[in-house]
Specification:
Blueprint lengths: L2 H27 L5 H8 L5 H17 L4 H25 L7 H22 L5
Helix pairs in contact: 1-3, 1-5, 3-4, 4-5
C-alpha cells in the first residue's frame, strides 16, 4: 500500500470517527435529541449522559490532536470499548437486533483507523 493511499484511508477514517463519535458525545453531554430516551431504553441512569459525552469527546480529541502514542492507544481502546458496550447493551435490552448495525459499522471504522495509524507510525518519517 502506498503512503498516499494509507494517508487517505487513515484521515478518511479519522474524520468519520470524529464526526460520528463527536456528534454523539455532544448529544449526550448537552442531553440533546432524545439522548436521555436512548439511555432509558438501554436501562442506564441519566447521569451516564454526562460521562458518555465527556469520554467520547476526549477520545475524539486524542485521535485528532498531536498527543503521545500511549494516549492515542488509550483513546482507541476507549472508543472500542464504548462501541462494544453499545452493541451488547442493545442486544441485552430487547431493542431490535438490527439497531446494532450502526455501532458495528463505526466500530469497524475505528479498528481500521487504528490499524492505519499503526502502519503510518511504523514507517520512517510518519507519525
Amino acid at each position: 500500500m502506498t503512503s498516499r493511499t494509507l494517508s487517505v484511508l487513515y484521515w478518511g477514517s479519522v474524520v468519520f470517527v470524529a464526526l460520528v463519535m463527536g456528534s454523539a458525545g455532544c448529544l449526550f453531554l448537552f442531553r440533546l435529541d432524545g439522548s436521555l430516551t436512548v439511555l432509558h431504553h438501554l436501562g442506564y441512569p441519566e447521569y451516564f449522559a454526562t460521562l458518555l459525552g465527556i469520554t467520547r469527546l476526549a477520545g475524539v480529541a486524542a485521535i485528532l490532536l498531536p498527543v503521545p502514542k500511549g494516549l492515542r492507544e488509550w483513546a482507541y481502546a476507549g472508543l472500542t470499548f464504548d462501541l462494544l458496550i453499545v452493541v451488547f447493551s442493545i442486544l441485552a435490552s430487547g431493542i431490535r437486533p438490527l439497531a446494532i448495525i450502526q455501532p458495528v459499522i463505526v466500530l469497524t471504522v475505528v479498528m481500521g483507523s487504528y490499524l492505519c495509524w499503526h502502519k503510518r507510525c511504523a514507517r520512517p518519517g510518519d507519525s
